[in-house]
């Protein structure tokens, strides 16, 4: 393989490495965000509210679910 052929492969590999690093970096930025924030980033605030209210039970069965249910109800109002 010639030197020019190898440098082209390195160039493509370098571009792929940069793309991979950017992708991982974006994922790590969002890793610390709460799930609701990540959903709002992807779906928007209104769709997230609707989704959370729809997915939750009509009657929560644990204290944690009660807090989540109230928060969703308050957000959807």
Key terms for this structure?
mainly alpha, 77 residues
Polypeptide structure, described:
- The model has no long low-confidence stretch (mean pLDDT 76).
- The protein folds into two domains: 1-32; 34-77, no CATH class.
- It has helices at residues 3-31, 35-43, 45-55, 63-76.
- The chain is mainly α and 77 residues long.
- The chain contains four helices and no strands.
Number of helices: 4
**Main sheet, how many strands, which sense, barrel?**
none
Strand percent estimate: under 5%
Order of SSEs: HHHH
Low-confidence segments, given as residue ranges, are: none
Structural class designation? mainly alpha
The average pLDDT score comes to 76
Question: Layout of SSEs?
Answer:
Elements lengths: L2 H29 L3 H9 L1 H11 L7 H14 L1
Helix pairs in contact: 2-3, 3-4
Write a brief caption for the model.
The chain is mainly α and 77 residues long. It has helices spanning 3-31, 35-43, 45-55, 63-76.
């Amino acid at each position: 393989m010639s030197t020019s052929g190898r440098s082209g492969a390195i160039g493509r590999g370098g571009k792929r490495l940069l793309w991979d690093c950017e992708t991982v970096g974006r994922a790590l930025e969002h890793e610390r965000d709460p799930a609701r924030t990540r959903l709002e980033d992807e779906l928007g605030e209104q769709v997230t509210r609707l989704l959370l209210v729809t997915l939750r039970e009509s009657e929560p069965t644990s204290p944690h679910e009660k807090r989540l249910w109230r928060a969703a109800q308050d957000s959807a109002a």
